[in-house]
Design brief:
Two copies of one chain form a homodimer.
Chain A lengths: L18 E8 L2 H11 L3 H4 L1 H5 L10 H15 L11 E7 L8 E13 L6 E13 L5 E14 L1 H7 L1
Antiparallel strand pairs in A: 1-3, 2-5, 3-4, 4-5
Protein name (chains A, B): Dehydratase
InterPro entries (chains A, B): HotDog_dom_sf, MaoC-like_dom, MCH/BMMD
Chain lengths: ~160, ~160
C-alpha cells in the first residue's frame, strides 16, 4: 500500500493533453452510510426515506466521499507509482450529479498544464482535470464530478542529475 | 444524527458578511491512518518515517480527510439544523499547511454572497469561505485549509408562504 521505492512516474510523465482513464470502483451502500455517519450525517446521506424527498431523489454518497473514492482510484492507478509530493489545492470542484450505492465509478484524467515550481527547482507542478463517471444500475454512464487541481511531482531530470 | 424535522436556519439566515466560528475537533492518529488506508494510501499519510522525509515533515492527514473533518464540524454547528439541500460545488480549495495528529481544528465561516436560485424559486444559494485553523502541539494556531463554495438552502419566506 505504500509507494514504490523507485518511482515509475515523474513530473515529465504528465504531459499536457495526455489522458488517463482508470478505476471501476463499485459504490457500496454500507461504505456510503459509514462515511456519512462519521463525516456528513445529513439525512439525504443516511436515510433512504429522507433522501427520496430530497433533491437527490434517493440515498446519495456525500460529495466528500466521492472525492475520497476518486482519490483512491488516483492512488491505485498512478500516484503510488509516482514521485508524488502532495497537492496545494483544487479549483472548481463540481458535484454535478448524485452518486448512488451500486454505481460503478471510473475516472478520466486530462493533464491541462505542467510547469516547474519556481521556489523548488526539483519539483514540477501539474494541473489536471479529473472527471468521475458513474455507470448506473440501468447501464447509462454520467459524469458526476468534475474538478481541476494541482499535483506536485519530483522532476526526473533533476533527480537523476542529483543522484 | 439527522436534521431537525423543523429547520432552525433557512437561506435568509446566511447574510453576506456574517461570520460563524465553531469546531474544536482533535485530529486522532488512528483516524488519520484509517482514512489514509481506505482512501489515500500515500506514504506521507501512512508511514511516520516516510512522512519525515516528505515535504510535510511528519505524518499528515490526507487533504480529503481534512475536508471531511471540516464537513463534520459544519454539520454539527449549523447544517443539521438548517434547511440544507446540498452543494453544487467548491471553488479554490487550498491545502495551505499540513494537518498533524494532535492538532485541534476549528472552522471560521464567512458568508460572501447570497442569491435566490433562478431555476428553483424556493431555493437560495449561499457562497461562503471556510477556513480551517489548527492549534498545534506548541499552542500556535495556523490556517491550514481555505475554501470557497456554495450551499443550497430552502427559503423561509417561500416555505412559509407555501405552508
Amino acid at each position: 500500500m505504500t509507494a514504490a521505492a523507485t518511482p515509475v512516474y515523474f513530473w515529465e510523465d504528465f504531459a499536457p493533453g495526455s489522458v488517463r482513464e482508470f478505476g471501476g470502483l463499485k459504490v457500496d451502500k454500507e461504505a456510503v452510510l459509514r462515511f456519512a455517519s462519521e463525516f456528513d450525517p445529513q439525512p439525504f446521506h443516511l436515510d433512504e426515506e429522507a433522501a427520496k424527498q430530497s433533491l437527490f431523489g434517493g440515498l446519495a454518497a456525500s460529495g466528500w466521499h466521492t472525492c475520497a473514492m476518486v482519490m483512491r482510484m488516483m492512488c491505485d492507478n498512478y500516484l503510488l507509482k509516482a514521485a508524488s509530493l502532495g497537492s496545494p489545492g483544487i479549483e472548481k470542484l463540481q458535484w454535478l450529479k448524485p452518486v448512488y450505492p451500486g454505481d460503478v465509478l471510473r475516472v478520466r484524467m486530462t493533464v491541462l498544464e505542467a510547469r516547474p515550481m519556481n521556489s523548488k527547482p526539483h519539483v514540477g507542478l501539474v494541473r489536471s482535470q479529473w472527471e468521475a463517471l458513474a455507470t448506473r444500475a440501468d447501464g447509462n454512464e454520467e459524469v458526476v464530478l468534475r474538478m481541476e487541481g494541482w499535483g506536485m511531482f519530483r522532476r526526473r531530470e533533476v533527480s537523476e542529475a542529483a543522484a
